[in-house]
Design a protein that fits this description.
The structure is a single chain. By secondary structure, the protein is α/β, with parallel strands linked by helices. The protein folds into 2 domains: 2-156 and 201-310, 4-Layer Sandwich (Metallo-beta-lactamase, Chain A); 161-197, no CATH class. It is 27% helix and 25% strand. It is built from 11 helices and 17 strands. It has helices at residues 40-47, 64-67, 70-80, 92-106, 161-167, 173-179, 194-197, 220-223, 240-245, 251-261, 277-285; strands spanning 2-8, 22-27, 30-34, 56-58, 86-90, 116-120, 124-128, 132-138, 147-153, 184-185, 191-192, 206-209, 228-232, 265-269, 291-293, 299-302, 307-310. A hairpin with a 4-residue loop joins strand 16 and strand 17. It is globular, with a radius of gyration of 22 Å.
């Protein structure tokens, strides 16, 4: 299961209700900050997430509404929080802008109190963990080295407790060893193998985030079959010319991508303050009904069979 907490859902400039681009992705104890617009550290505090384990930052591209919050956030993290290192992943152009922001402005040429590693992103796998991977894919937007990210759980074989019961496998370490692919020997000498108690493989949860993007024809396959697609929706269809000019998407284009790729749910973000949420939602749902428009502090639980939304009341 992946969890998403949106911290900023506005496009280019903040509004009263929406901060600039940022959200946190969680998988068990792992946490990732995806983009970091101005004001992100305060949004983290307001969300209740706090800074614990927030040591990996993934940046989609180097525009200021996606990176400017790194200055304040990292100043706070390295001076006041108990972190031992910080890893930042981005395309080369974005990394250079971030490096200047941090090294020249935040730290004034001095060595940071904790190591900060800058990781250039290229197409393909970026991070690998026991249960999931994080991969990057190139997208078309204004400027070089723009990327989206895919979070994908590994396929696993479900444990079938009824078969374990029938074979007399006791609860506890023996069952865990079988799940991990190891055969066991029961007290009566019988050997039980993983195939005896595991079902056929089931794919894991797949979550795709496009970042800012100006065209979709090259994204259908990378989005194919995703449980959740998070896409920008800066414009309405009536502004398609503007969307094309500034390399952004309309709500309709995002919905068409979701439909072509056969995703299960679409979450729209990067909403222009010129538009009302219901306008964006209506345009998208006419093509792809399973659409949400994210608000700041929305919390989504993404499981293989469902997506649940926790939405705090607006004050």
């Amino acid at each position: 299961m992946f969890e998403l907490t949106f911290l900023g859902t506005s496009a280019s400039a903040p509004s009263v209700q929406r901060g600039l681009s940022a959200h946190v992705v969680q998988h068990d104890q792992y946490r990732f900050l995806l983009d970091c617009g101005e004001g992100t550290q305060r949004q983290i505090l307001r969300s209740g997430l706090g800074f614990k384990h927030l040591t990996r930052v993934l940046i989609t591209h180097g525009h200021l509404d996606h990176i400017l919050g790194l200055g304040g956030l990292i100043s706070t993290l390295v001076r006041w929080e108990s972190i031992e290192e910080l890893d930042i992943y981005a395309g080369r152009w974005a990394l250079e802008r971030i490096r200047i922001l941090l090294e020249d402005v935040v730290f004034g040429g001095a060595r940071p109190p904790v190591p900060i590693a800058f990781h250039p992103v290229r197409e393909g796998e970026v991070l690998e963990f026991t249960d999931f991977t994080v991969s990057a894919f190139p997208v078309y937007h204004r400027g070089p080295d723009c990327y989206g990210y895919v979070f994908e759980e590994r396929s696993r074989r479900p444990f079938l407790p009824e078969k374990a019961e029938a074979l007399g496998v006791p609860a506890g370490p023996e069952r865990r060893r079988l799940v991990e692919g190891e055969a066991i020997v029961l007290a009566d000498g019988r050997v039980v193998r993983p195939d005896d108690v595991l079902g056929p493989p089931r794919r894991g949860v797949r979550y795709v985030h496009t970042g800012d993007v100006g065209r979709t024809e090259d994204l259908v396959e990378v989005c194919r079959g995703a449980d959740v697609l998070v896409s920008e929706a800066t414009y309405l269809h009536s502004e398609a010319d503007l969307a094309r000019k500034f390399a952004h998407l309309t709500a309709r284009q995002a919905a068409e991508l979701a439909a072509k790729a056969g995703v299960r749910y679409l979450i729209l973000t990067h909403i222009s303050r010129r538009h009302r949420e219901r306008e964006i939602l209506q345009e998208a749902r006419e093509i792809f009904p399973n659409t949400f428009v994210a608000r700041d502090f929305d919390h989504f639980f993404i499981r293989r069979d469902e997506v649940l939304l926790e939405r705090p009341q607006r004050k």
